Amino acid sequence: MNYEEMLNAREAAGGKGTELPIGVLRQTQIDHKYRFQITLKPTLADNTAFRDGLQRDHDWGAKHADPHRLHYDIATDSEASASGNTTLLLEPGNYQTLAQVLDANPAIVASAGFVDQMFSQLMAYASKLHANGIYQLCFAPQNIFLRKGSTTPLLFCHGSFFSKVKDTRNLYEGCESFVAPEVLEGGEGSEAADVYSLGKLIEFLFEKGGMTIEYKMLLKQATATDPAARFHSVEEMKSSLAQKRGMRRSVIAVIAALAIALICVWIYIDMMPQRSDMEFIEPVKKAEVDPFDDTYSPDVEMILDGDTITITNEDMEMYTQKAEEIFRSRFEEAAEEKLNGVFNKATMGSREKAILADSKQMQDQLEELKTELAEETGIDSERAAEIARDVVETKMAKKKKDLENTAVQKPKEENE
């Protein structure tokens, strides 16, 4: 038995493949090349209305080249298999369903941008379909394909081509929860039906993870049972999502501004120089030299007088200035690091609840740092407080400006 015969024997022996609503996805070898094929369920393959819809879907797809459209050929028995089953030969490529991707790596949902990019691309393609009077109707993970190594969703067998199939539950078997109730009951497809299905997909993706507030607000309307209560179009849903994201960023900016205001208040209260009550100590009287004291030694007194170092006021000013420069440099570096840990563009979106708590902790750390550096550099506490206040004020003003720009610019970029 050669290698090709061994592969065919293994396939015939038991490759179960991947279950899809319309059949089973398998990888097979045709003319020494691997191709993915879908073996249709007998209940659909023998259904005249389904076969007519399949032919119309195939012909429409052949005329429309789109990166989100998965093309296929309706294979004859000689091209696909000797079992007599009707198969769809997918265009060359290595494919897997979104359901397979999620089963193999559930953590991918939490990766940066995965859900947003997937949802954005599906909404964009749905809008193109709607412009041609076509509706997908089922955005189930088992109905969405991806090429291995790619995150571009691929769709085919658009639901509206199969509107004459009476047994819709057989058509969407295993994915009924992703189909609008009115479609399952035999109703016509619509943009509202696609809105419902897209909403159910997002609900599924966030099933095991934390859903952001804008998606929670979106899904409440998108997945309404009554079609009239949903978004009337995918474009309306897309616009609403962008608006809710802008509102969320505004809330984040307000919280950040509140935290900044609290820090500024703390600066003037905790770092304001305070006078300390000092106990008055009388100076020690200079001892008089007794001329009859035998212990007096002129040589020793001369040595001590010669070794005494006199520091002038100019020297003290120079030393103090140098100490203040060292204090400012070290405090600026440490303060920048701590401020970046609380106020930054990358983490503000997911940490709005912790901003105020983090700000209080940062205040305590900066106060402790101020005291520690003042002792190390030898400058008095009043001057240390003045320098620290100046450093924090400057950096907080810059942070506030950056956050305000972020809150204003991001919604504009999404709308564009």
Task: Tell me what the structure shows.
- This protein has 416 residues and is an alpha+beta fold.
- It is built from 15 helices and 7 strands.
- The chain has helices at 3-14, 42-45, 48-63, 77-80, 98-104, 114-131, 168-171, 181-184, 191-205, 213-222, 234-270, 298-307, 313-342, 355-377, 381-415; strands spanning 18-19, 23-30, 33-40, 72-75, 87-90, 95-97, 145-147.
- It has a 5-stranded antiparallel beta sheet with strand order 1-2-3-5-4. A two-stranded antiparallel sheet has the order 6-7.
- A hairpin with a 2-residue loop joins strand 2 and strand 3 (33-40).
- Helix 6 runs antiparallel to helix 9 (191-205).
- The longest helix has 37 residues, at 234-270.
- The model is unreliable at 1-7, 78-82, 302-307 and 411-415 (pLDDT under 50).
* Class from helix and strand fractions: alpha+beta
Kindly state the percentage of residues in helix.
55-70%
Discrete helix count: 15
Query: What's the overall average pLDDT, rounded?
Result: 78
Order of helices and strands: HEEEHHEHEEHHEHHHHHHHHH
Strand adjacency order, main sheet: 1-2-3-5-4
Name the poorly predicted regions: 1-7, 78-82, 302-307, 411-415
How is the biggest beta sheet arranged?
Answer: 5 strands, antiparallel
Distance between the termini: 60 Å
How much of the polypeptide forms β-strand, as a percent range?
5-15%
